[in-house]
Amino acid sequence: MTGQSPAREPRKAHTTQPPCPAQQPPLAQPVQGAQVVARIALLLRLVGRNPSGTPLAEIVRDSGLTRPTVHRLLTSLAAEGLLDHDAVRHTWHYGPEVFVMGTVAAACYPIEELARPSLVRLAEETGESAFLSIRRGAETVCLLREEGSFPIRSFVLHEGVRFPLGVASAGMAILAYLPDAEVDALLADTGLGETETIAARWGAQHSPASIRANLERTRVTGYAVNPGLILEGSWGMGAAIFDRSGRPGWALSLTGIEPRFKPERQKVLGQLLLDEASRVTQILQRPPLT
To answer: Which helix (H) or strand (E) segment is 253 a member of?
Structure first.
């Protein structure tokens, strides 16, 4: 099977909409007067970044809110069952209500079930760790991980971890196929709506100019390469999956150590990623059964 075309614009696809809501519009503007909702959503995202739990100090730091405000909101969410607090480790975790909500929502978004066979094939054929990530606004979120057989692994990516679009190979693969105006907005100096720029948090190698250069390379080959930009020696490659409207909404990726990603092997890994991303895209773009 051939891989996805590396052409700048993704091909048109079926416009029939799935029975469940599509992904939220990118860069949606907050509703006026809904500050508390935005703060709660932010805190839920921050807590979910680390499956082993997130300490209060880290949540305060990354939210930009005051410690009393964060503690009050987290405590309120815990009272509703949305969060749990580990009093021994002093960390916050998702609560049982989030699990229930996720279980109900999973039926509307069967991407994990559709992509898992591709992750298994990628891990078996390459020996590397394979991942599925989803776009959520200005970020990617890792949903699934399938371990490969190679004994040395990279642990930069794991379920629940979030990166800005343009950071990590999955986000680069998605960003490369977005309209130019949207890319410009995402790479604006405001740093994707945060209080600091991407480069300030992730290093000068993630400056807008550097990201744009990587985007151009991605558009030529069709797949993205992260040459140890997040953690030295930890490499990654990714390919985008497209929804029915032809927009990139997810990405498959592989991660491993630098010696496993030599230029000659990158072409092999890249084609495998493109083939599997194309498989999932074609399934997603099939008209729903009536």
So the answer is: strand 248-257
